Amino acid sequence: MKWLELLTVAGATLVSAVTVVVLYSLGVRLTAIAGDARQASPRTKRYFAYTCFGLCGVAVLFGLYLIIPYFSK
């Protein structure tokens, strides 16, 4: 068995999963902060929150692109 390839895939999976979770969590946190009436610039925070959600969606779609063989022909 090729252990280096197995460790490479495991590492890439871990990094990808952590990235998606952090982006989603950051988006949720920024949305909650933007909803506070006492904030100075809620529009900027909401923009960054939606950007985080968008990047999270792009990462998920890219993962699906890599997994589904029909799309990678």
TrEMBL record:
The keyword Transmembrane applies. The chain crosses the membrane at residues 6-26, 47-68. Keywords: Membrane, Transmembrane, Transmembrane helix. This is Twin transmembrane helix small protein. The lineage of its organism: Bacteria, Bacillati, Actinomycetota, Actinomycetes, Micrococcales.
